[in-house]
Amino acid sequence: MAIRKTSPDDLLGPVTLAVGQEDLLLDRVVQAVVAAARAADADTDVRDLAPDQLQPGSLAELTSPSLFAERKVLVVRNAHDLSADTIKDVKAYLDDPIEDISLVLLHAGGAKGKGLLDAARKAGAREVACPKTTKPAERLTFVRQEFRTLGRSATPEACQAIVDSIGSDLRELASAVAQLTSDVDGTIDEAVVGRYYTGRAEASSFNIADRAVEGRAAEALEALRWSLSTGVAPVLVTSALAQGVRAIGKLSSARGGRPADLARELGMPPWKIDRVRQQMRGWTPDGVSLALRAIAEADAGVKGGGDDPEYALEKAVVAVARAARMRRGG
After folding, report:
1. Which one is predicted more confidently, 292 or 161?
2. Which of 2, 245, 263, 301 is a Cys-bridge partner for 312, taking CB atoms 3.0 to 4.6 Å apart?
């Protein structure tokens, strides 16, 4: 008998198909099925198999009735890499799955092994999408969802700061959210995120630059001193400052338009267009020129042209923050 179409909520359906290349999401699909199975039967037997561990004939052995009739979960990772003969075994099993066995197939979703993918879908497998997150906006959505799942509130600025600080690894993003929700009471804001994650070299450098180009000299200097005390290389700071000021110069001289159009024209992601638009208030063309000269002097200083790299950076940060306020006269 073929599998009836399985509800997305039915974790104990006969076959679950997890499709994509995002390891964290794939692992979560497995964990959810295993947890549901063990909630139904604490003695559930779980087998987590790589493609080379599932040879022709192995599936029949693994799904044969047990002496103790316990529930089983069979996880097949990288199912797209199974041999042709083993794929035939799996397809045959899909036509007549066994009660109390949950088969979880993890498939990358590409052309390789597509026959197995199509067969599982046709058989009515429960399918979960696990796509690789490639865009900053997707990672931001992921962080927001993590907070919602944990029943906690975080400001939009805090979510963005986590993405900026941690980067593209979903495991690290999830871990950061979990740590913050465990350690901090109440709404999580940008200041809290800053206290936890400004020690990361690249994130710390861009945090300094963001404060400086927004004209927040005192906060930029505080972030600079913290970063240097944690071992951030001075050259990363001058690089981040230069990128921040150049982005403002590019956007201020660009024609108006939608973020997506400007992003293509200037080679920036759309989310950055929105951020730079907020940061460029108060900037003038003269301010951009002055700031870039100050950064160039600091860069020479930290690369051996001066006696005190820390002082050179502080001068540059103050100069950039002042340039950011020229239009406001501050």
Report:
1. 292
2. 301
